[in-house]
Amino acid sequence: MAFLDSPKIVSSRAKFADSHTLARYLETGGYEGLRKALTMFPEQVAAEVDAASLLGRGGAGFPAGRKWSMLRKSPVSYLVVNGDESEPATFKDHYLVERDPHQLVEGVIIAAYALQVTQAFIYLRGEFALGLERVQQAINEAYEHGALGRKIFGSSFSLDLVVHPGAGAYICGEETALIEALEGKRGFPRIKPPFFPAVTGLYGEPTVVNNVETMSNMPWIVLNGGAAFAALGGGRSTGTRLFALSGRVRNPGVFEIEMVKNTFRDLIYDPQLGGGVIDDRAIKAIIPGGVSAPWFGPELLDLPLGQDEVAEKGSMLGSGSIVVMDETTCVVRATWRIIKFFSRESCGQCTPCREGSGWLERIMYRLEHGGGRIEDVDLLLDLCDNIAPGLTWPPQQTTICVLGPSMPSSINAAISMFRDDFYAHVQHGGCPHD
Amino acid sequence: MTHFRTDLRQRAVELVSLYPRKRSAMLPLLHLAQEQDGYVTDEAMAEIAELTGTTPAEVRGTAAFYDMFHLEPVGKYVVGVCTNIACLLAGGEDLLAHASSTLGCAVGGTSPDGLFTLEETECLADCNIAPVVQVNHRYVRTTTPELFDALVDDLRNGRLDHDVPPHGTLIRIRRSGGLRVDPEELAGERAEARAAREARVATEAK
Ligand SMILES: Cc1cc2nc3c(=O)[nH]c(=O)nc-3n(C[C@H](O)[C@H](O)[C@H](O)COP(=O)(O)O)c2cc1C
Ligand code: SF4
Ligand code: FES
């Protein structure tokens, strides 16, 4: 059975219809974390976040405290919050920006204080029209409330916070592409090194980039202490986390549960969580952490939801999105659609990614829609091997960013788990499910 | 005469002032232009170039990179249907095909009456109510063919004009506060704060 007794750290307010308003926020402890933070030295606030050992929630899972500790060496100029959320089947930041925008804003102010920056940005994907409205409204209210602007709550700390709308480009979730977009340019990722944001970020200055969910944890961590956060979860995966569950489940949604204490099976089957597979069918495969992640078969359902636990089995928890495919799912079609996504979203700077995604998509298309050949299956793997040599996990990098090398994951997983399904498509001259 | 309407020109100037560098206002200004004209016109690009200190070619090159910006006229309502993985598993392709026949236009095209443009989108981050449909970037939570037809009917009859405003995502948001401090002054303050902090760190180290 799932373990559901842990505190709701970022989703406690979502049950209220007016969870996005300042009135509700103040009634439920809003801005108390910030008030407390302002009585501490910035370094103490950073130390609490370090003690929490909060892993970044944007996908890479880098500890937020460690990222910030670079500020000791070179003072940070800007804080940029990543709310681009375009990884397929990821929708937890959407939930946070619409349901609890003040919590995000408070988290950003606390982080800005810890980093001692006076200018922060929240980058939200343009398709979040309502989210943009709510976050801007929250910011406007925060200014009026004295939580933003000059001399916050009478302290000597000042901060300006700007919401920046994206305009439809998955690649802008990659932090250096996001910075380009914030500078008013095309979202082309920059080469690292030298363009690590912490060294040469926005306008060439040191910049911290953190995810929306990472920021939303700050008020609780400051109020309750980093140790209380670190006491939850297990191993390196501390605290709770939002999991976005979708696909062939009865009750898809966003669930906040404690890390490691629960398994994939708990998340998918518990009546208070996913509620099981539609029509009680068998699970064929799951995608454990966004479409860049290698898939798992049903034999791994009892794996705990922890970053290292999933990494040990050759995949990643990534953005915390889990997609369930059942026995009725055509894995060839699913893979084709995932590749089509990558081919559409490749920014085009690197040949293996730009050309490779197009080739893969065309081969997958003919397998799924008719005209595929037996040798296509190995051709796919050969192409994948060119994009990410050795097809290792994590993939070897041949390109500027990791979008290109993560695209073979799904093809490689689908072929190694369901090679016969690919052959059946060739023999049938198209999709047997149609 | 500016191409932006007087009120939107005012908004545009405000948007530019939010950023340390003018060019950063590029995407917000493109959204604003699309809000006014439905798509990004040549005249708007020229004005955005002037506002951001760039050239019209740079504005065009930037706008063309982003899926949300239309460089050609589109319908009053841009309907996006997601067919990415979660929506695929919930019948997104069928809903897209249905939308195409209801609206009488191909995917990527505009309906004969010029009212609707239909797009196939990538994941819209609302995958728990799949398949996901947006109209002018507002979630409409329309998951079946029947609901889709009812939606189209409501849109045609203007019953959803409040929920689904024209193009652009900035139309209902306006920044009301802000530091609005001379950057020099802030830089001075920041330097002072930094010096104080460094002094403190130095004492701590001893
Ligand atoms: C192709 C690509 C897309 C990404 N998309 C997102 C995204 O939508 N949101 C996000 O927070 N991080 C995304 N990331 C990760 C960011 O580059 C960055 O690691 C993250 O924002 C850091 O925040 P965190 O440390 O709080 O997780 C993406 C990375 C890549 C390579
Ligand atoms: S790997 Fe792909 S998305 Fe990343 S920079 Fe290269 S071409 Fe662009
Ligand atoms: S896959 Fe369609 S909204 Fe996410």
Key structural traits:
heterodimer; A: 434 residues; alpha/beta; Rossmann fold; Ubiquitin-like (UB roll); de novo design (two linked rop proteins); 3 domains; four-stranded parallel β-sheet; four-stranded mixed β-sheet; 18 helices; 10 strands; 41% helix; B: 206 residues; alpha+beta; Arc Repressor Mutant, subunit A; Glutaredoxin; 2 domains; 8 helices; globular; binds flavin mononucleotide; binds iron/sulfur cluster; binds FE2/S2 (inorganic) cluster
Description:
The complex is a heterodimer of chains A (434) and B (206). Chain A is of the alpha/beta class. Chain A is built from 18 helices and ten strands. Chain A folds into three domains: 22-225, Rossmann fold (3-Layer(aba) Sandwich); 235-326, Ubiquitin-like (UB roll); 331-428, NADH-ubiquinone oxidoreductase 51kDa subunit, iron-sulphur binding domain (de novo design (two linked rop proteins)). Chain A is 41% helix and 12% strand. In chain A, the strands form three sheets. In chain A, strands 3-2-1-4 form a four-stranded parallel sheet, sandwiched between helices. Chain A has a four-stranded mixed sheet with strand order 8-7-10-9, with no helix packed on it. Chain B is an alpha+beta fold and 206 residues long. Chain B has two domains: 6-71, NADH-quinone oxidoreductase subunit E (Arc Repressor Mutant, subunit A); 77-156, Glutaredoxin (3-Layer(aba) Sandwich). Chain B contains eight helices and four strands. Chain B has helices at residues 6-17, 26-37, 42-52, 56-65, 85-88, 92-103, 145-156, 183-205, and strands at residues 77-82, 116-121, 133-135, 138-139. The longest helix of chain B has 23 residues, at 183-205. Chain B is globular and about 70 Å long. Chain B starts with 5 loop residues before the first helix and ends with a helix. In chain B, 42% of the residues are buried. The interface between A and B is large, with 77 and 61 residues. The complex binds flavin mononucleotide, iron/sulfur cluster and FE2/S2 (inorganic) cluster. Iron/sulfur cluster binds at residues 171, 189, 346-350, 353-354, 399-401, 403-404 of chain A.
